[in-house]
Design brief:
It is a single chain. With about 130 residues, this protein is of the alpha+beta class. The chain has helices spanning about 50-65, 80-85; strands spanning about 5, 15, 20-25, 25, 35, 40-45, 75, 95, 115-120, 120. It has a three-stranded antiparallel sheet, with no helix packed on it. It has a three-stranded mixed sheet with strand order 7-6-8, with helices on one face. It has a two-stranded antiparallel ribbon with strand order 3-4. The longest helix has 14 residues, at about 50-65. It starts with 5 loop residues before the first strand and ends in a 7-residue tail after the last strand.
């Protein structure tokens, strides 16, 4: 499952790091801001078998956060050179203001399927074959 915006006391949706993590807006949630102001992109390879599921989960997460009107764009990463230019480490990738909040340190840019960690272990993608 793709993690959604975090909530602080009072229920206001905010995007940033969880305590003890470094996220797109700094360590320990520093610099958090209103999620409605964030540019969201879904990066995928052509014919990604997980594109639709990722888009559905992203819409669901935005809706659950009360951000029904917040949209996102989908961008195709067509070749290895583009993957390297963008730091793309697998399909699907979600960017918030151009940053990957789920980036794994040391991950190599590639045109591959991407696994996301969940509380139950890695999320199993549909076959990328």
């Amino acid at each position: 499952m793709i993690p959604g915006p975090h909530r602080m006391k009072g229920g206001a949706p905010l995007l940033g790091a969880l305590p003890g993590q470094s996220g797109p807006f700094g360590p320990h949630g520093a610099g958090m801001r209103d999620a409605a102001d964030v540019e969201i992109e879904l990066l995928v390879v052509p014919d990604c078998p997980n594109q639709q599921l990722a888009a559905e989960r992203l819409r669901q997460t935005l809706g659950e956060a009360g951000l029904h009107a917040t949209g996102f764009t989908t961008r195709m990463i067509a070749d290895q050179a583009e993957a390297e230019r963008t730091g793309f480490t697998g399909s699907p990738t979600i960017l918030l203001d151009g940053r990957d909040p789920f980036a794994e340190p040391g991950a190599t840019p590639s045109l591959a399927c991407r696994l996301y960690r969940t509380p139950d272990g890695p999320a199993a993608p549909r076959s990328c074959g």
